[in-house]
Amino acid sequence: MAKSPQNTTQTLFILLIIFSLLSLTIAYDDNTFPEKELGFKREKLTHLHFYVKDVVSGRNQRVVRVAEAATTNTSSVSFGMVTVVDVLLTVGPEPSSKQVGRAQGMIAFASQSEVGFLMALNYVFTEGKYNGSTISILGRNAINLPVRELPIVGGSGLFRFARGYAQLRTYKFNTTSFLEYNFYVLHY
């Protein structure tokens, strides 16, 4: 006796559900989580202290405007402007201070009432023990405050699975600004 097309479709549908459930069961197996391969060890707290050198104009400009609000926007706080940055991380605030990395990412002017940034940055370390490792932040920077705090949301290399916070202080502000950073990073 031949099967009807409806029975064949139902059988195929049931088999598809069974195979899908089996594949989910196979893919989720707590006993095979590769903790050692992912770099899990004992969690530790690392404090990093460095300066960021922002050059916002001139020949060596490292902060570049890539978008801004329509010309009808008369905001005194540049609301709607977006910049891309590739700035230097240095050991000290002096112009000749040793470079230890770069901060790369985007900053958006995200407040209509004050100068407040949304910062999405990767801090790429290029020297010493942390060479090749990164730390990522994503948060609000209200630059009129003397001390700002931004969340650390991840990292790579020695900072894999990073979390914590960054404290920022404006050290010097003009066409070449220096920001003082203190990172408090939990990582494995």
TrEMBL record:
It is found in: Secreted, Extracellular space, Apoplast. GO terms for cellular component: apoplast. Keywords: Apoplast, Secreted, Signal. The keyword Signal applies. Residues 1-27 form the signal peptide. GO terms for biological process: phenylpropanoid biosynthetic process. InterPro entries: Allene_oxi_cyc_Dirigent (IPR044859), Dirigent (IPR004265). It comes from the Eukaryota. Its main location: secreted. Dirigent proteins impart stereoselectivity on the phenoxy radical-coupling reaction, yielding optically active lignans from two molecules of coniferyl alcohol in the biosynthesis of lignans, flavonolignans, and alkaloids and thus plays a central role in plant secondary metabolism. PANTHER family: NUCLEOPORIN-RELATED. Homodimer. Belongs to the plant dirigent protein family. This is Dirigent protein.
